[in-house]
Structures are given as C-alpha cells and as structure tokens.
Amino acid sequence: MSHSCHGHSHGGGHNHDHDCDACCAENLRGQEFNLYLRIDMESLTCLNEVEDGSGKTIFRSFEDRLDKDKFVASDADAELLFNIPFTGSIKLKGMLVIGGERETHPNKMRLFKNRPNMSFEDIQAKADQEFDVHVDHDGAIEYKPIVARFSDVQHLSIHFPSNHGDCDRTEVYYIGLKGDYTEARRHEVTITAYETQANPADHKTSSLDTIGYMIS
C-alpha cells in the first residue's frame, strides 16, 4: 500500500515537472515567433480576402495563435496572396501556418523575397521557395526556409494557391514568423550630412586649389 502511495506521489511530481517543461517550451517558442512585431502592418496587404483587413489579423503573438475569431478567408477562388513589408531587414528562419478545416486548409505555400506589391499576375514567376503545407490546427509544424536565401528580407510575399479540399474557399487563422531582425539603415542621414559640406568639385578651381582645400 505504501509503495502504491509513493508511486502516486512520484507520478504527480513527474506530471508537474512535465507541465512546467511544456509551459517553458511554449514560452520559448512564443519568444522565437515574434517577427510579427517587425511588420509594417499599415502597409501589409492581402489579395482576394473576403473581408478587407482580415489578412492583417492572422499575424499576431504565438500565445494568441488559437484565437478562432481572427482569420482570413479567400473570396473568388482558393488563392490568397500576402504582401508583407517589414520595418527593417529580417533573416527568416521558420514559419507556422494554422488553417481551417481540412477542406479549406492551404496545401501549398510559395515564398517570394523582396518583390513589393505583387499581384496575381506576378506570381507566375518562379518562387524563391515552395512548401507542401500539412493540416495543422495547433501551430505544431514548422517550415524551414533556406536561411541563406532569406537572409536579407525587407519584404516577403506569401502565396497560397490551393487547399486540401480543392474548393474555392481557403482559410488561414495564423502565420508565425521566426528569425532575426536588423533595424533599417538610415542612409538619408549620411547623405544629408555629406551635402552640408562644401564640395570642391562644385567649383571650377585648379587642381592645386582643390588640394589646398582638402588639406586645410
């Protein structure tokens, strides 16, 4: 009897540890999939969405990935095309895609790097990378872009051409983006500072005068 009781106590402690491990792992994953914070949301567009602006709602925190009130659905056919500008440069290392039920869940994903304002006419071009997308309702499946290919991304276009049900409606509830972020370089500041200095080349002077100016 005492052995059984001891076993029960041990099991309870083990489950508690397991729960802690799972919680820590989820927190870590949430910290990793945080590139949604680096998206220029005002400029993000989703083509062929039923409800205007709904495409923006699926880029959110990992903790809110299971919120079924926020999703985007395709309108005229199964295709969805996201144009995602960032506030700086990212190195894309991982992606999560949560879709609708099997019939409306995307089955393919095509990525295009640094091609702003793509339209459905533009997606005939070869994608920088393509994935087969599996049915995933929890954000458990991670897709790994080729990091060397997506190491300097200011703009990412994501094209979902079809779904598992071969129907006209595709639904996406969440897209998670993982990677590194670099602030945008401020070239205009450098240029302004340069232009405030007198430039000898702007004046017709002899070579000797120019050299004298540069030395002084």
Map the helices and strands.
Elements: H1 2-32, E1 45-47, E2 72-73, E3 80-99, E4 108-113, E5 129-132, E6 142-143, E7 153-160, E8 171-183, H2 187-195, H3 207-215
Antiparallel strand pairs: 1-3, 2-8, 3-6, 3-7, 3-8, 4-5, 4-7
Description:
- With 216 residues, the protein is of the alpha+beta class.
- The protein has one domain (32-183): Jelly Rolls, CATH 2.60.120.
- The chain has helices at residues 2-32, 187-195, 207-215; strands at 45-47, 72-73, 80-99, 108-113, 129-132, 142-143, 153-160, 171-183.
- Strands 1, 2, 3, 4, 5, 6, 7 and 8 form an 8-stranded antiparallel sheet that branches.
- The longest helix has 31 residues, at 2-32.
- The protein is globular and about 45 Å long.
- The relative contact order is 0.18.
- The model is unreliable at 1-14 and 202-216 (pLDDT under 50).
- One of its GO terms (biological process) is positive regulation of megakaryocyte differentiation.
- This is PITH domain-containing protein GA19395-like.
- Belongs to the PITHD1 family.
- One of its GO terms (cellular component) is nucleus.
